[in-house]
Design a protein that fits this description.
Strand 13 and strand 14 form a beta hairpin. It is built from 25 helices and 14 strands. About 50% of the residues are buried. The protein is about 45% helix and about 15% strand. The two termini are about 30 Å apart. It has a domain of about 70 residues. The strands form five sheets. The chain has a five-stranded mixed beta sheet with strand order 5-6-7-9-8.
C-alpha cells in the first residue's frame, strides 16, 4: 500500500498513505537554506517540484548501473498506466503532444495558454481525469480551437476520442459512490464499458483463488472483457495485453539482474521476469515472498501491477515503479519501530481475538527515491508498505519505507501561511513548528510499519475487497491512521528515543489530523461536491466520528471567531481514548467482514460535506498562491558508454522543465499504440 496518501496533502501536516496513497497533508516547516531549485513551476491547482538523490555519488559503478537499469524498466511501462486510466488516453495524449511540438501559430493567445495548461494537467494525471478527484479535466478552450490546432499541425483526433474531451461521457475515472453501478459508472480501463458491477462480482466469485489459505490476488494483472457475450480476462504479460511494453521491461530487468548486489536480489528479479513472461499470479506471490525477504543491499525497487485504489471493485492493480537507495542514518533511527512491532500489537486496544500473536518480519527503512514511473509519478506517495496480499504479510512480513528525499522536497518547498490561517491559536502553531516534521514522519512510520501489519481476519472470513467491497480501501487506510494516532501520544515513543516529548508530539499530531480532516483538505474539492477519494474520506470519517462521540464531554470544540471556523482540542487524553475505541471497532469490521457497519461509518461520517463550512474554507484559502497538489519531475540518470557500449559512469542531471521531461518520455518510452 502507498501513502500517497500518506501522500502529503499539501497543507499543514502530512497524512496520506500506500499501502500510487496518496497519503495527505503536506508538512509545513521552514525551508532550509539551500541553493537547490525545488520548485519547477505552477499551473492550475498543481506545483511541480524536483528532488535530489542523496548518496547516489557514493554508490559503486555496479550499484549505479542497477539503479539505472531498474529506472529504465520502470519508464518502459509508463504507457501502461495511461491506458489503464482510460481507453482513449494514449490517442489523446499523442495528438495533443503533436500539436504542442509542431504548432507554429500565435503562442501568446489566451487559447494557446489554456491548451498548454490542459496538456500539462493531462500529463500530471496520466490521462484526462484529475489524479485526485477522478473528475474529467475541463479544457478552457473550445472544440473549434482544438480543431484548428489539429488541422494546422496535420494531427488526427476525431470521433469519440475528440468528443470525450468536451462532452459529459466518462465523467468519472473511478466512481465508488453508494447507489450506482460502480463499474459501469467508472471510466477506468480495467473493464469493457459494457460490463456491470454484478458481472464482475459473479466472475470473480468463480475465479481461480490459489491454494487453500494462500489466496492469490485474483484479477490483479488482467483486463476483464466481453467477447461474444462471454466474460474473459486479457492478461498483462509478454505476448499478451501490453506485451510490447512488458517486453521492454523484461529486457531492462535482465540487465539489472546481471548487476544485482547479491544472490537473493538476483533470484527475486528472476521471479519478477518470470511473472512478466507468464502473467501467473502464483509466480507473483512467489516473487512477493522473495522480495520481502530480500533485505540485504542498498538498492531496492517496487515494480508491477500493485495498488488497487483505481478499481472500484478492488481487484485490478495499477502499474507503478519506484527505485530506492537506502538512507542509512534515518533507517537506523526508524528501525526501532520494526523491532518493537509486537509490543505495539500487544498494547493496542483491539479485541484479543483480533490481535496477531506473532507480527512477522515488519521492516521499516527511510529510502531516497532515484526514479518513479506509472502510478507513482508525477504524483508520488511518501511512504509504501508492501506486499498487499494479506497472507503473505502475515506469514512472511512486509517492507515499509518512507521516501525521505520526497518528504524533504515537500518540506523545502513549503510555507507557513495556511498554518497561520487555519490553526486555532498560537499554541497550536508553536507545536506544529516544533514537532510538525517529526510528527509527520512518525505517523507515516506507525501507519506503515505497525498499522498495516496489525490485526488479523477471523477464520473463514474473506478478503476485505470481497467483504467490504468498495469501502475496503478507505477502511484500511483509516484503520492504519488510527493505529498511528493511538500510539503517537504513548510514552513508549519517548522511551524508544523517537521524540523528546511524547505528550507534545501527540498533541501536535492530533491538532494537525483534526485540522486537516475537518477543514483544510476541503480545499481539494469543488464546492458542492462530496468527498470521494479514499484517503480524504478516511480522514474525514475518523475526524468526524471522534468529534461527534466527544461532543458531550467537549473533547473537541468547534470555535467560530471573526466569521471563521476552527477546531480546538480541549482533552487530548480523552481524544486518544476515542481514537482507540474507533480503532477497535474498525478492526472488528475488517476482521468480521461487516459490510453494513463499514457502509454506515463511511457514508455516515466520511462523504458528505458541510457546504457552508466548505465555502468559507475555499474563501480563506483563496489568498494563498501555492497549489493544493504537488508532483515531481524525476532526476535524469545519464549513462556514459565506452566504445564497446559498456556503461562507464552514471550521472544525475535535473530536468529543466516539466514539459521537456514529458515530451522526452513520450519520445523514448512509447511502446504501446
Amino acid at each position: 500500500m502507498n501513502f500517497k496518501v500518506l501522500f502529503l496533502c499539501l497543507f499543514m501536516g502530512a497524512i496520506v498513505w500506500s499501502c500510487n496513497e496518496d497519503t495527505s497533508e503536506k508538512p509545513v516547516v521552514a525551508a532550509e537554506e539551500t541553493s537547490f531549485e525545488y520548485l519547477v513551476e505552477q499551473f492550475a491547482d498543481i506545483q511541480i517540484l524536483r528532488y535530489q538523490i542523496p548518496g547516489f555519488n557514493e554508490l559503486s559503478l555496479d550499484q549505479k548501473k542497477l539503479v539505472y537499469y531498474l529506472s529504465q524498466a520502470g519508464l518502459a511501462g509508463r504507457d501502461i498506466m495511461w491506458d489503464q486510466n482510460y481507453r482513449h488516453n494514449l490517442q489523446i495524449r499523442k495528438a495533443l503532444e503533436n500539436v504542442y511540438q509542431n504548432y507554429t501559430g500565435d503562442k501568446t493567445s489566451d487559447n494557446w495558454q489554456a491548451f498548454e495548461i490542459y496538456l500539462k494537467r493531462v500529463w500530471f494525471s496520466n490521462g484526462i481525469h484529475h489524479h485526485y478527484s477522478n473528475d474529467k479535466l475541463i479544457p478552457e478552450f473550445t472544440p473549434e480551437y482544438l480543431t484548428e490546432l489539429l488541422q494546422e499541425t496535420n494531427t488526427d483526433l476525431s470521433g469519440e476520442p475528440f468528443e470525450v474531451i468536451f462532452n459529459e461521457q466518462d465523467a468519472k475515472k473511478v466512481n465508488k459512490k453508494k447507489g450506482v453501478d460502480n463499474v459501469a459508472a467508472s471510466a477506468i480501463n480495467f473493464y469493457d464499458p459494457s460490463i456491470t458491477d454484478k458481472e464482475v462480482e459473479d466472475f470473480y466469485a468463480k475465479a481461480y483463488k490459489g491454494p487453500e489459505g494462500k489466496p492469490v490476488e485474483s484479477g490483479l494483472n488482467t483486463k476483464l472483457v466481453k467477447k461474444d457475450g462471454m466474460l474473459m480476462e486479457e492478461v498483462y504479460r509478454s505476448g499478451g495485453l501490453y506485451g510490447n511494453a512488458i517486453d521492454e521491461i523484461i529486457n531492462w530487468l535482465e540487465l539489472a539482474k546481471g548487476v544485482a548486489e547479491n544472490e537473493q536480489q538476483a533470484n527475486t528479479l528472476s521471479l519478477l521476469i518470470d511473472y512478466y513472461k507468464t502473467g501467473s499470479l502464483d509466480t507473483w506471490d512467489a516473487y512477493a515472498i522473495s522480495w520481502v525477504n530480500s533485505k540485504e543491499g542498498d538498492i531496492d525497487w517496487i515494480n508491477g501491477f500493485i495498488e488497487v485504489y483505481n478499481d472500484p471493485k478492488g481487484y485490478k492493480g495499477s502499474y507503478e515503479s519506484i527505485i530506492q537507495v537506502k538512507d542509512f542514518e534515518m533507517s537506523k533511527q526508524m528501525a526501532v519501530l520494526s523491532e518493537n512491532a509486537q509490543w505495539f500489537e500487544d498494547m493496542s486496544p483491539l479485541m484479543e481475538e483480533h490481535k496477531k500473536k506473532n507480527v512477522v518480519g515488519v521492516s521499516y527503512k527511510t529510502v531516497n527515491v532515484a526514479a518513479e514511473a506509472g502510478d507513482a509519478s508525477p504524483s508520488t506517495p511518501i511512504g509504501v508498505n508492501l506486499p498487499n496480499n494479506n497472507w503473505i504479510r502475515q506469514d512472511h512480513g512486509s517492507k515499509s519505507v518512507s521516501l525521505g528525499n520526497i518528504i524533504d522536497s515537500y518540506n523545502n518547498a513549503g510555507g507557513s501561511g495556511r498554518l497561520n490561517e487555519f490553526a486555532n491559536d498560537a499554541e497550536e502553531i508553536a507545536l506544529e513548528e516544533k514537532y510538525g516534521k517529526i510528527a509527520s514522519k512518525l505517523l507515516t512510520a506507525l501507519h506503515e510499519v505497525v498499522g498495516h501489519a496489525s490485526g488479523q481476519l477471523n477464520e473463514g472470513i474473506g478478503q476485505p475487497k470481497e467483504t467490504l467491497k468498495n469501502y475496503a480501501s478507505t477502511m484500511e487506510e483509516g484503520r492504519a491512521d488510527l493505529v498511528g494516532l493511538y500510539f503517537l501520544m504513548d510514552p513508549k515513543l519517548q522511551e524508544l528515543g523517537l521524540t523528546d516529548n511524547s505528550e507534545e508530539l501527540g498533541k501536535t499530531s492530533y491538532d494537525r489530523y483534526i485540522r486537516n480532516g475537518l477543514v483544510t483538505q476541503l480545499v481539494r474539492i469543488n464546492l458542492g461536491d462530496d468527498i470521494e477519494e479514499d484517503h480524504m474520506v478516511n480522514r474525514q470519517w475518523v475526524s468526524a466520528w471522534v468529534f461527534e462521540k466527544g461532543k458531550a464531554e467537549n473533547v473537541i470544540e468547534k470555535v467560530e471567531r471573526d466569521g471563521k471556523t476552527y477546531y480546538n482540542i480541549n482533552d487530548y487524553s480523552r481524544l486518544r481514548e476515542l481514537f482507540g475505541e474507533l480503532l477497535r471497532e474498525t478492526q472488528r469490521i475488517k476482521s468480521e467482514g461487516d459490510f453494513q457497519a463499514a457502509q454506515d461509518l463511511v457514508e455516515g461520517y466520511g462523504v458528505k460535506v458541510d457546504q457552508e463550512l466548505h465555502a468559507e474554507v475555499l474563501e480563506r484559502n483563496s489568498v494563498f498562491t501555492s497549489s493544493p497538489y504537488s508532483g515531481f519531475v524525476n532526476p535524469e540518470l545519464v549513462a556514459e558508454m565506452n566504445d564497446s557500449g559498456e556503461i562507464i559512469s552514471v550521472s544525475v542531471e535535473q530536468a529543466a522543465t516539466f514539459a521537456e521531461q514529458m515530451m522526452d518520455y513520450s519520445k523514448n518510452y512509447s511502446f504501446l499504440k
